[in-house]
Structure formats: structure tokens, C-alpha cells
Design brief:
Layout: H1 8-17, H2 21-28, H3 32-49, H4 57-65, H5 76-90
Helix pairs in contact: 1-5, 2-5, 3-5
């Protein structure tokens, strides 16, 4: 069995690597409202796939390290998915639309 990713950035990179370019573009242009809909549909998958609550303590710790004192959002799936969204928005020039 391959080892599990241990950081938020590792998970975000894995999720992005699995996305076709068109999906990357869609996600990068997504509104906050649409992002929350996406979150609701994939959060449990992210938690289960990367075993956030069932033994991947390094990833859980990495998620909690991303929470600032001013944030009340401590949901690991939200932290991971926001990082995916942020990475896609940080590098729009990598998107190729065909």
C-alpha cells in the first residue's frame, strides 16, 4: 500500500494532479457559493481517502497548523479543499483550456 500524504500541500497536489485541465479551470473560477457546494459533495471522500480521522495523524496535525487564531474553521476537509482552490487560483497560467 502506498504511503499516505502527510501534509495539506501534499494532498492538494495529489488532488490537483488527478484533475483534467478543464476541471482545473472550472475550480479556479469557482465562486465561494459554488466552492461550498463542492465542499459539501466531496468533503467526506477527502476525509476517508486520506484517513484524516482514522490514523493519518500527520495530516490531521498539518491541517490544524493551517488554522490561524482568527479562524473558526477547523474542518480538515475544508482546509484541504481551500488549499486546492488557493493553489489553482495562485497559478492560473498553468491552466490549458482546449
Amino acid at each position: 500500500m502506498p504511503s499516505l500524504p502527510q501534509t495539506v500541500d501534499q494532498v492538494a497536489d495529489l488532488l490537483i494532479a488527478d484533475l483534467p485541465p478543464k476541471e482545473m479551470a472550472t475550480l479556479s473560477l469557482m465562486s465561494e457559493k459554488d466552492f461550498l457546494r463542492l465542499y459539501n459533495s466531496v468533503a467526506q471522500y477527502v476525509l476517508d481517502e486520506f484517513r484524516v480521522w482514522t490514523g493519518n495523524d500527520d495530516l490531521l496535525e498539518s491541517c490544524l497548523e493551517k488554522v490561524s487564531d482568527s479562524e473558526d474553521m477547523t474542518d480538515p476537509a475544508m482546509i484541504i479543499l481551500r488549499r486546492v482552490w488557493q493553489k489553482l487560483n495562485d497559478f492560473p497560467e498553468i491552466l490549458i483550456i482546449t
